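From the shared-data thread, chain only:
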Amino acid sequence: HGFKSMDGAVVFNLLFGIYFNFMRPHEALDGQVPIQLPELQDASYQEAWSILMKKAISYSKDPKT
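Structure, as tokens:
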């Protein structure tokens, strides 16, 4: 099936990277995520995505923050 454009493939890979590093518990890390953010500690799955997307938007506007 694949993607209809390269943009779709890029977005898919970016979102997978976010999920893999910030949200997915890893067995090798005793069920912890590789990159832990305090604001994601008690967040639901949907809230975590929202927080991470807002951080990405904020960073893209001012990468110094």
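The chain has a mean pLDDT of 89.
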